[in-house]
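Changelog note: in this version the structure field was regenerated for every chain. One regenerated record is shown below for reference.
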Amino acid sequence: MRYIIDGVEIRSENAAKPSTQKSSSVDSYLGSIKGNPAILDFGCGKLRYSDTLVSVASEVTFVDSKLQLNRDQIIRGEKTNVKEYVETNYPHCQTIPYELLAKHNDSYDVITCTNVLSAIPCSKTLSEILDHILRLLKGNGLAIFVNQHRNSYFKKYESGEKLLHGYLRTGPKGTSYYGVLDGKTIEELLTKHGYDISKSWCVGESTFSEALPRK
């Protein structure tokens, strides 16, 4: 996704990390998902955790911006794009561009949202994302949010302009946004948008939150 904030373009797709930079704690947690669920991976980026999700799911729907899904880049050591990689390597899986998500009405047992909310510098888009995830969850479904509450980059970003839950910083490659989403901030966001948090904990620099649709 790309955003214009005060006339400055922010290219959030550049925040996506490759599979070679997986967090071991996040990967281990996702790999422990039971029940062979239908999973939607919101903000799949460069398919950082795709192999793990596919290994535990009956099917996976990968969602990101049209730009992120279709641009040529290196995916798991291969020059391709996300859409083609999923079609070639993951039977029973699909990609859906965020721009078309409002027309998508399937429901899911599990929806993962890993290090995505911290890259969103727009409160309107943040609300839309949380509403979409809630809408697409089954009544007994589970939403999993993982966000970093601390990082060595934060000090560098704190010299920039305060915005929403984080900071804007301009560097040689343009302006970028980094949100600081601790457990309290996530709880307030999710509660506001109709979720009940069933469990929340921290591992290292990451906050894990399991949330359910409010009954």
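Spot check on this record: The chain has a mean pLDDT of 89. The first helix runs from residue 24 to 31.
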